[in-house]
Amino acid sequence: MANMVNPYPDTFRLRRKIKANFHTHSKYSDGRLELQRVIDLYSRLQYKVLMISDHDVFGGFVNADNKGLTLIPGVEVSDGGPHMLQVGIGDKIKPDPDRQAVIDAINNAGGYAIMNHPKWEPGLNHWPVDVLLKLRNYLGIEIINGNCYHDAGSAEALDVWDAVLSAGKRIWGMGNDDCHFTHDVGICWNTILTDDPSPRGILHALKRGSFYVSTGIEINNITMKNKAIVVTCRDADIIVAIGEHGCELAYGKSGSITFDVEKIVMPYVRFECYGRGRKRAFTQPFFNQDSLSYKPVPKTTALRIADVKSISDIKTELWQKGAAVTEMISVKKGVSAEDSTRFCILYDRKNIYIKALCYEPDTSKLEKSRTRSIYSDDSVEFFFDPGRTCNEYYQIVVNAAGNVEVLKNTPHTLCTIKGLVIKAALKPRRYEIALSIPFKSITAAYPAHNAWGLNFIRNRTGLKRDSYVWSWTGTYNHLPSRFGVLEFDQ
Asked: Signal peptide position in this chain (predicted)?
């Protein structure tokens, strides 16, 4: 059984399910309502927890009548960069343009950082995924932002959440109104599961993920026992189990789903409950402690050789001197691949050279058609990210017959690499593919002092329907933050 971390241990047995909003504005910043009016509105809707989060301003609620609500101190840090919530601390944090510095300051003060409305604004990238992947130690992101339903951009950032979770980060999803007007109140909320309604108890529940997001329906129970997670939501017509990159793994009808986690290799699973209209609820992710997504990426080193005229001049003995990549992982099973694959990497002043040796018990059964998609063939994919930008990288796909496709990502665009040389050979019990790539065609800098992102994928279609990967990227190969590291021997 996968070693799953349950964010809801025994919490659904508790009597208290506390309705909370953590993103609220008043006239102290750009809200249109007096602060007391805001508190009154949320009190009438049976909220029990409210955080006034005016832009870079703190303290307006101190003298207000709380109407029985627990008021959490907080601010929306706005100046200088993308917006985030500082949750649980009353001191104003300097809005440093270096958002990692802001997160660190919030954590050092004893609070939590939440990244606000990731898809606000016309470009849908207030918080781009690559930025979120580089930042550290924030508690979560807003997956629903009510104000954005009638503002530029998208209110929902479930795809951003899945992208960040799939890259190996462990963050929670939060739903907030981002109230500025009367019509913003009560669009979505966080149901916090705790018997301690004090600010300390609320913040502790947030930290451990003991809450779910709702736009109108209630989750009645979540349990994890034996080999299954069971989610019950009587208001839901259907419940969907969601895995990495937003894959829909299973469905449950009649208000319940039982999801078997015994053989799961994905880093997480979460659940979405769909009621009528736009009424939905979203659990936090259950993290798979055994997932390879949480393991360090592998490293290898390219051996420096004397300049050669062409890749054909490199002798077998020289290939064998360099460090070899031999440990591949089955994407289907998440364990070491059964069949042997070997990659050797060399370089000189002008080119990088890579040789793949793919061992097969019966090469006559290889799929290497010239008429179908190259991805349907037995093939090897080479991923290069010069400088480890985690943004722009190259993908070279070569099948067992030596047919090639080259793409530059992102976005996925067919391209050519000037001077690229491909050599393919079919031999008894294996096929070989060798590449020669001029440095100047893919990077402006000589690489000796710069590590690259690198990954290898071997696709097996003739004898086995599986793929093998060097650095684990899960079910989606295009995850440069999880590429392995290539260093250059001096």
From this structure: none
Amino acid identity at 113: A
Q: Which two tokens stand for residue 79?
A: 């100046």
Strands 484-488 and 299-304: parallel
Total length of the chain:
490
pLDDT score of 465: 79
- Burial code of 271-305, b = ≥16 C-beta within 10 A, e = fewer? bbbbbeeebbbbbbbbbbebbbbeeebbebebbeb
Which letter, b or e, does each residue of 167-180 get, where b requires 16 or more Cβ atoms within 10 Å of its Cβ? bbbbbbbbbbbbbb
CA-angle at 94, arms to 93 and 96, nearest 5°: 130
Per-residue pLDDT, averaged over 290-316, amounts to: 93
Whole-angstrom distance, CA of residue 384 vs CA of residue 347: 14
pLDDT band for position 320 (cuts 50, 70, 90): very high
Domains in the chain, ordered, with CATH? 4-290 (3.20.20.140), 295-488 (2.60.40.1190)
